[in-house]
Amino acid sequence: MSKKQEEKGMYVEYVSRAANNFVYCNTFLCVYSLICFSSDFIDILQKLTKLSLKESKPQSRRNGQSKSGKLSLHSLPVEVTNRIALDCEMVGIGPGGKEHMLARVSIVNERGEIIIDQYVQPQEPVTDYRTEISGILPEHITHGVDFKTIREQVRQIIHSKILVGHALKNDLLVLNLRHPKYNTRDTSRFRPIAKKAGAFGTPSLKSIAYALLGEDIQDGSHDSVEDARAAMKIYMLFEKEWEKNAMPAWVLQFDEAQD
């Protein structure tokens, strides 16, 4: 190969390399410019950053409830045991105060510890506070909890639990709630309780608490916490007999479906 041909080959190789470098450099500059100076790309990055930060924040809770409204049972002051007792105090509404409206609701666990005990704001004008019996005064319920809020809390707490109480039908009625029969333990309706207490017909909670527990409750106005605790104590006395005679859940569920 002559010297002239060799020089020509070296020149061609040099030009080829320079051209390749030029292409690579221009490609890099174009991509870099798009990334750094495209407003659309920057907007997208900013939106993605804000979204990830928003999703990483924990949901705030109020009184044990998330924004979804679901109550956290772990946030309650005491354990929600499998057996809980409910009692309500009511005031009168309508002509003569003959209709019932919720004014206070209390739930205790099987050890008598208070799960909730709240006064409830009136949903309608009160015509009879029934203070001598209910113990409710106007100032108790003026700044009470909203009915819908407390109803939802009670609903979540009693769900799937054995619910104990005395004349529970009345309490559930003012709460506008239902509870499965197979999980309801009403001390006013279990005949062995009335029999042992020597009561005829439907016994009062006061009479069976005195006869079976030796406790003089409802001395004056009622206290829903005291009444719920008394009902739970009475239930515990008869628990083995009661649960032994209780019908299987699937049988009662079938009966309710037929009604």
Protein architecture, described:
This protein has 11 helices and 6 strands. It is α/β, with parallel strands linked by helices and 259 residues long. The radius of gyration is 36 Å and the shape is globular.
Provide mean pLDDT, rounded: 80
C-alpha end-to-end distance = 109 Å
Instruction: Provide the gyration radius in Å.
Output: 36 Å
Q: Specify the overall morphology.
A: globular
Give the strand content.
Answer: 5-15%
Main sheet properties: 6 strands, mixed
Query: What string, H for helix and E for strand, traces the elements in order?
Result: HHEEEEHHHEHEHHHHH
The helix tally amounts to 11
Strand runs, count: 6
Question: What would you call the structural class?
Answer: alpha/beta
Give a summary of the structure in a few sentences.
It is built from eleven helices and six strands.
Question: Secondary-structure map with pairings?
Answer:
Elements: H1 3-37, H2 39-56, E1 83-93, E2 99-109, E3 114-119, E4 126-128, H3 131-134, H4 138-142, H5 147-158, E5 162-165, H6 168-175, E6 184-186, H7 191-197, H8 205-213, H9 224-237, H10 239-245, H11 249-258
Parallel strand pairs: 1-5, 5-6
Antiparallel strand pairs: 1-2, 1-4, 2-3
Helix pairs in contact: 7-8, 8-9
